[in-house]
Amino acid sequence: MNRTPAKHFAPLAIGAPEPFRQLPVRLERMLHFVPPHIDKIRARVGELIPQVDVVLGNLEDAIPADAKEAARAGFIAMAQTHEFGATGLWTRINALNSPWALADILEIVPAVGAKLDVVMLPKVEGPWDIHYLDQLLAQLEARHGLPKPILIHAILETAEGVNNVESIAAASPRMHGMSLGPADLAASRGMKTTRVGGGHPAYGVLADPGSDGSPRAFVQQDLWHYTLARMVDACLAHGLKPFYGPFGDFADPAACEAQFRNAFLHGCAGAWTLHPSQIEIAKRVFSLDPAEVAFAKRILEAMPDGSGAVMIDGKMQDDATWKQAKVILDLARLVAARDPERKGLYGLPGA
Ligand code: GLV
Ligand code: MG
Fold first, then answer.
1. Residue 101 neighbours by CB distance under 10 Å
2. Contact 116, 79 (CB under 8 A)
3. Residues 269 and 323 occupy one common structural domain
4. Is 328's pLDDT higher than 80?
5. 350 pLDDT more than 50
């Protein structure tokens, strides 16, 4: 159950900032994961900030149990040391049923809450997980006089979470979006793959036998299509942003790019980058092809009031394609505002 419409946007603690009515508009093509307990990596965060849209200090999986406290302290130090400007600052805290989650929240929010944009919450099973964190964040925001609400981003990575995806999206105006977590989700569902995201060579469709006995084509399918589609619909229906999660095979940039592109075409705003080599891939995929932007511009120019029907290069355009073109140009403008090189390629006036 959620609060009534009348109460939906009321702060959950006296003195906490008002929830956003609409998400702040931000470019988040890649959520770049940093292990904050490693000094050498932390030392390079200053160089990283201008290269990525979001820096995320990871405290959960991949951080060894004996380094959890060092990672938390490292994240706080990293947040205190740097100015992030237009780059987002996020953290992935430990799961709510772990021994570390409460201290993650209780230490990070008072220390650097004013700089923190989003808390990524792993292994979200249902709206109750969001309600718990929502209330706690409101209490801490009130207590520490934070000026703006810290948002929550859920990882969709359990069978129960996928079942409850819509109620998770609807749980709070503090929701920012969701990421698909293919590794945990595969384990939770009993999928027979040890890969972190991407396809599987055995998951596909075999073409019917031909009459000439020629070899039958086997076409690999996308293991994540169903979940991604559910997540995209749940997010967009609630004004949230969907993201593809991790792609673990760093030695296969082509497959990473293909998986990211499927997510992008499907409606996702970005993906996780776990390795520096994936940053350029995410930038390329989630930034739009200049030819697509040029065509979208032609649609808008041909239909100044967004209604009616026209033909462009033999293709029918109408009110619906005008809206499709607007999605493309809104994103192009957002990219152009942050990326001077692409601004030139898109031929957009001053962003
Ligand atoms: C990410 O957290 C995943 O489990 O894939
Ligand atoms: Mg996971």
1. 20
2. yes
3. no
4. yes
5. no
Best CA proximity match to 68, nearest among 94, 105, 45? 94
Determine which helix (DSSP H) or strand (DSSP E) holds 261, and give its type and residue range: helix 253-266
Shortest-distance ligand to the CA of residue 196: 1
Whole-angstrom CA distances from 243 to 111, 112, 176, 231, 240 are 28, 25, 11, 9, 10
- Indicate the DSSP class of residue 217: P
Pocket test for ligand 1, best of 185, 194, 195 (most atoms within 8 A of CB): 185
User: Tens of pLDDT along 114-168?
Assistant: 999 999 999 999 999 999 999 999 999 999 999 999 999 999 999 999 999 999 9
Rounded to an integer, the average pLDDT of 258-262 is: 97
Quick one: 226 and 298 in the same domain?
no
Q: What is the pLDDT of residue 118?
A: 98
* Nearest ligand to residue 182 Cα: 1
Q: 214 lies in a domain?
A: no
Same domain, 100 and 240: yes
Average pLDDT value for residue range 183-189: 97
| Closest alpha carbon to 22 in 234, 238, 230 | 238
Please give the distance, rounded to the nearest whole angstrom, from the Cα atom of residue 244 to the centre of ligand 2.
Answer: 12
Q: Whose CA is nearest to atom 2 of ligand 1?
A: 181
Question: How far lies 216's CA from each of 203, 208, 213, 219, in Å?
Answer: 15, 7, 8, 10
Give the pLDDT confidence score for residue 3 in this predicted structure: 85
26 assigned to some structural domain: yes
- Regarding whether 340 and 196 lie in a shared domain, the answer is no
In this structure, are 277 and 296 located in the same domain? Answer: no
Flag whether 351 is in a domain.
no
Q: Go through the chain and tell me how many residues it has.
A: 351
0.90 cut: is pTM over it? Answer: yes
First to last CA, the chain: 42
Domain count of the fold of the chain: 2
Q: Are 265 and 297 members of one domain? A: no
Best probe residue, ligand 1, of 121, 124, 155 (max atoms within 8 Å of C-beta): 155
Residue span of the structural domain in which 325 resides: 292-346
Return the pLDDT at 349: 67
17, two tokens? 């900032």
Count CB atoms within 10 A of the CB of residue 291: 9
